[in-house]
Specification:
Shape: globular
Keywords: Pyridoxal phosphate, Transferase
Cofactor: pyridoxal 5'-phosphate
InterPro entries: Aminotrans_V_dom, Aminotrans_V_PyrdxlP_BS, PyrdxlP-dep_Trfase, PyrdxlP-dep_Trfase_major, PyrdxlP-dep_Trfase_small
Oligomer: single chain
Number of strands: 15
CATH superfamily of the largest domain: Type I PLP-dependent aspartate aminotransferase-like (Major domain)
Protein name: Capreomycin acetyltransferase
Number of helices: 15
Bound molecules: pyridoxal-5'-phosphate
Distance between the termini: 37 Å
Number of domains: 2
Structural class: alpha/beta
Radius of gyration: 21 Å
Strand content: 15-25%
GO molecular function: transferase activity
């Protein structure tokens, strides 16, 4: 991996900032931005329909590149405007009735939890959150017992929570779901782009992801993976449009065969193109390389922060490129001021966004630094030094 070349391909880095907010919204490679601008210029000249026709083959590459990213087939991929849209469309294809059980984890994303609670309020669906072991790993024995006892309609697990460095073992969850033939959704919003994500190994029915984070795509992009199993059983979003089905009779339609049935007809084709370029960019570097490189950056940062006296809040066997911490006295404000004053890009989140996790950790929130493969070890040392001086 040629970090110098990668950095030269990011106009956003030219002003010397320290950019560590890849879990929020990353810096796009130049090719992503340039391809979108060029596409807009074409639309300006010829109108969107003509340009979509002229670029049909190129736009179709989005499906092939995304399939390559997660080891699936193009027919299992749908373009989405966000991970949340992907999640909502996937859930809307499942017919929940009163008393159905959803098994999830305490670390699942805030919006996923709110969706489950909404289903609970409207349909009396029951939410069970899987317990964790003392080492912060999911309790798979308990998962198996819960599945046997409740026959859940869905198991949903967030691969990497937004407010914690934890990597949840979605592959082991998948093995159990396949064994008991349970629908399984993996929220890989924070993992795609930062590490290897392989749907064959995860064994999920739905996988949701966004473009703007570690994938380095544009805002308003994302994707949904839908398994063959689910497609063959005619799962489709409850509010389908003509992208999903052929209107065959006055009162009937025929579902299209591929995961595109989860899309809506109208999308920003410039965003599809930008996302395709972003995925291609990551594929060409190689996700294994990216994962190994990121691991080293994040581990070094965690070690430096702990040694300086910060409370590093990431607990688990496998940790990701999301580094969360607070001051020794749980301070968040002073840390943020110091980072802002030194041109460091980061994010912070407060209790409501990880209500159970932050309550368990007895903190009001966390500052989040999320390095990525365009960052250097030297930058990690610089931000560590800036922070350590703030404690003196
Ligand atoms: C784990 C996780 N899932 C889902 C989402 C939602 O993604 P989007 O905002 O693209 O809908 C996020 C966003 O931060 C996330 O971190």
């Amino acid at each position: 991996m040629n970090t110098d070349k990668i950095r030269q391909e990011i106009r956003g880095l030219r002003d010397g900032k320290l950019f560590f907010n890849n879990a929020g919204s990353s810096l796009m490679p130049n090719i992503v931005v340039d391809s979108m601008i060029d596409y807009f210029h074409q639309e300006e000249q010829f109108g969107g329909y003509e340009v979509a026709n002229r670029n049909a083959e190129l736009l179709e590459n989005f499906y092939a590149e995304t399939a390559r990213l997660i080891h699936s087939k193009p027919s299992n991929i749908a373009f989405m405007t966000s991970a949340t849209e992907a999640f909502a469309k996937a859930l809307s294809s499942i017919i929940f009735i009163e008393g159905d059980v959803i098994i999830t984890t305490i670390d699942d994303y805030i919006s996923n939890q709110i969706t489950f609670i909404s289903l609970q309020k409207r349909l009396n669906v029951k939410i069970i959150r899987l317990k964790k072991l003392d080492n912060n790993e999911l309790d798979f024995e308990e998962l198996e017992n819960l599945i046997k006892e409740h026959q859940p309609k869905l198991v949903a697990v967030t691969h990497i929570p937004t407010n914690s460095g934890l990597i949840q073992d979605v592959e082991s969850v998948g093995k159990i779901c396949r064994q008991y033939d349970v629908l399984y959704l993996a929220d890989c919003c924070q993992s795609v782009g930062q590490m290897v994500v392989d749907v064959e190994k995860i064994g999920c029915d739905f996988l949701t992801a966004t473009g703007r984070k570690f994938m380095r795509g544009p805002r308003g992009s994302g994707f949904l993976y839908v398994s063959d199993r689910v497609l063959e059983q005619d799962y489709a979003p409850v509010l389908l449009d003509m992208r999903g089905a052929h209107w065959s009779e006055f009162d009937n339609y025929e579902l299209f065969k591929t995961a595109k049935r989860f899309e809506h007809w109208e999308v920003s084709y410039a965003a599809v193109l930008g996302m395709m370029e972003a995925v291609k960019y990551a594929n060409n570097i190689g996700l294994e390389q990216i994962e190994n490189y990121n691991k080293n950056l994040a581990e070094t940062l965690r070690t430096n922060l702990s040694e300086s006296g910060f409370k590093v809040l990431d607990i688990g066997k496998n940790l990701s490129s999301i580094v969360t911490f607070c001051g020794p006295d749980n301070d968040l404000e002073n840390i943020q001021n110091v980072l802002r004053d030194n041109n460091v890009f980061f994010s912070a989140s407060y209790k409501h966004s990880a209500l159970i996790d932050f309550t368990d950790k007895k903190v009001d929130g966390a500052v989040r630094l999320s390095p990525h493969y365009f960052n250097t070890l030297e930058e990690i040392e610089r931000v560590s030094e800036i922070l350590s001086k703030s404690l003196i």
